[in-house]
Here is the input.
Amino acid sequence: MSVVGIMTHFPNYNADEVRAKLAQFKESSTWLMQQANLKREEITLHVANSYTALNVPEAQLDMVRPGGVLFGDLPTNPEYPSIVSFKTRVSSLHHLPKDSTVGYDSTFTTSRDSVLANLPVGYSDGYPRKMGNKAEVLINGQRAKVVGVTSMNTTVVDVTEIKGVLPGQEVVLFGQQQKQSIAVSEMENNAELIFPELYTLWGTSNPRFYVK
Here is the structure.
């Protein structure tokens, strides 16, 4: 085995705590290199995630590991806004009479004659089941409520009050559309997950488009 680096990771966004643990890391890594006869110039020391790299510069050491800040997901540093959006399109429209049930377990019943839009996205794509009957999406710059339980590849939203909805139209699940936006806090509250649990799935389960 060839040792090329020594690292640690800080658990909290607290600069004073980071500095204290940084001192411990330096002491421990120095001891380890001495005991193992490792040359300092051949070892990469790294401890800094996004928060630490930006807020405790003395902890940058030989390299940094920025993650969330690259996506604008770092609440302590709002000067880096979110650059991520999660979108789909309307796949079909359905006219349902009053008292119709929607989705698995029939958790939603229409209270009026309704127009529902089927979206080709579900929990296998990173849109959790818990979004059902709670979350909203953006269509034509307006909010549409998710109705029924989100299934594996399908989500249904109520577009009865939104004019001009057609198959193929863009739907924003997270991000901004016209003057409306779905924010990080809204996604986390509805999904009962932290935001990285969502966007790490989005990036592996769906096509990615990089916009300059």
About this structure: The first strand starts at residue 5 and ends at 7. The helical segments are 15-35, 50-55, 184-191, 195-205.
